[in-house]
Design a protein that fits this description.
The complex is a heterodimer of chains A (114) and B (113). Chain A has 114 residues and is an all-beta fold. Chain A has no helices and 11 strands. Chain A is 0% helix and 50% strand. Classes of the chains: A mainly beta (114), B mainly beta (113).
Chain lengths: 114, 113
């Protein structure tokens, strides 16, 4: 079992560009959540996808959007990148939708915005 | 929304000593409290969790206690070892909350030889 896999692991963008991050959940999991972790901080919830729909959203602007595919994998898109978007983006998967379920995290995608 | 406070921000102990990290939460509807360990450059890994229907849970050298009335929970690590050195995060969520974990700000634990 490969667990939660994310790609790319590192990427560098410039302000104003757009980025797409990808996540494959752990086998048997059907729910994907995305978190942003700034350096030295705890992860901040961005949103959750279940049954290909965004189910809950944290306090992030509309520049952050996502998608879940029929195979449960997910993408996070960030438009009009700002310097403050530089962070580690973590994907977490779980089973069973919107309950308080155990999350398994991926290793993250580290985004640097110049 | 939920707010989780975590103390201390740094903790240094001697190998073999115990370490205690404390968290408080604000939303009385929160009913799931996991603890994650994150080593430098690696993913957060769940080390123990507790749900609101129990007051204490143990797993070998690690234990978590929950006081629902006071809305605080604590992580206890006994017989610390150098490999316990990492950042530890507490978190809280609630049923129907969409797996929205609200994390504390983290505790950098250093176990010294």
């Amino acid at each position: 079992d490969a667990g939660v896999t994310q790609s790319p692991t590192h990427l560098i963008k410039t302000r104003g560009q757009q980025v797409t991050l990808r996540c494959s959940p752990k086998s048997g999991h059907d729910t994907v959540s995305w978190y942003q972790q700034a350096l030295g901080q705890g992860p901040q919830f961005i949103f959750q996808y279940y049954e290909e729909e965004e189910r809950q959203r944290g306090n992030f602007p509309d520049r952050f959007s996502g998608h879940q595919f029929p195979n449960y994998s997910s993408e996070l898109n960030v438009n009009a990148l700002l310097l403050g978007d530089s962070a580690l983006y973590l994907c977490a998967s779980s089973r069973g939708g919107t309950g308080a379920n155990v999350l398994t995290f991926g290793a993250g995608s580290r985004l640097t915005v110049l | 929304g939920e707010n989780v406070e975590q103390h201390p921000s740094t903790l240094s102990v001697q190998e073999g000593d115990s370490a205690v990290i404390k968290c408080t939460y604000s939303d009385s509807a929160s009913n799931y409290f996991p603890w994650y360990k994150q080593e430098l450059g690696k993913r957060p890994q769940l080390i123990i969790d507790i749900r609101s229907n129990v007051g204490e849970k143990k797993d070998q050298r690690i234990a978590v206690t929950l006081n629902k009335t006071a809305k605080h929970f604590s992580l206890h690590i006994t017989e610390t070892q150098p490999e316990d050195s990492a950042v530890y995060f507490c978190a809280a969520s609630k049923t129907g909350g969409g797996n929205k974990l609200t994390f504390g700000t983290g505790t950098q634990l250093k176990v010294e030889l």
